[in-house]
Amino acid sequence: MKTKLPKISSQKVFSIIKKPITTEKSTTLQQFNQYTFVVSKNSNRNEIKQAIEQIFKVKVMKINTSILRGKIKSFKGSVGYRNDIKKAIVTLKEGNTIDAALEIK
Predict the structure, then answer these.
(1) Per the domain annotation, does 3 fall within a domain?
(2) Distance (Å, rounded) from C-alpha 70 to C-alpha 80?
(3) How open is the CA angle 30-92-6, to the nearest 5 degrees?
(4) What is the CATH number of the domain that holds 41?
(5) Of the candidates 34, 84, 39, which has an alpha carbon nearest to the alpha carbon of residue 60?
(6) Which residue range is the domain that position 19 belongs to?
(7) What is the pLDDT at residue 32?
(8) How many domains does the chain have?
């Protein structure tokens, strides 16, 4: 028995989904109805699913998430780290699509 999750506000929706990823790998995944987004690090799958469904008006089947650790970079002798990024690969139901040119600002 599934419990109904509380609906998240529209302000939180846009803070969860940061931007779409448009790399060569992510554009080839669009053939299989999968889209890739950068999401906030403290969001979970249920929040990501609700955010995608509210913003793009589509039906989400599955979500895969991964955290990409920041690389070590040196600049003029000082060493630093890039920020960690959480990435979500969203699989949509058949017949649903997201415009790839659309960008969240």
Answers:
(1) no
(2) 10
(3) 140
(4) 3.30.70.330
(5) 34
(6) 10-92
(7) 93
(8) 1
Containing H/E element for 102? none
* Other C-beta atoms lying within 10 Å of the C-beta of residue 77: 5
Residue 2 lies in a domain: no
The tokens 């109805």 sit on which residue? Answer: 33
Could you give the CA distance from residue 3 to residue 69 in angstroms, rounded to a whole number?
Answer: 33
pLDDT at res. 105: 47
Is 104 within a domain? no
pLDDT tens track, the chain, 105 positions:
566 777 888 888 889 999 999 999 999 999 999 999 999 999 999 999 999 999 999 999 999 999 999 999 998 999 999 999 999 999 999 988 888 665 554
For residue 81, the number of C-alpha atoms closer than 13 Å in the C-beta half-sphere is: 6
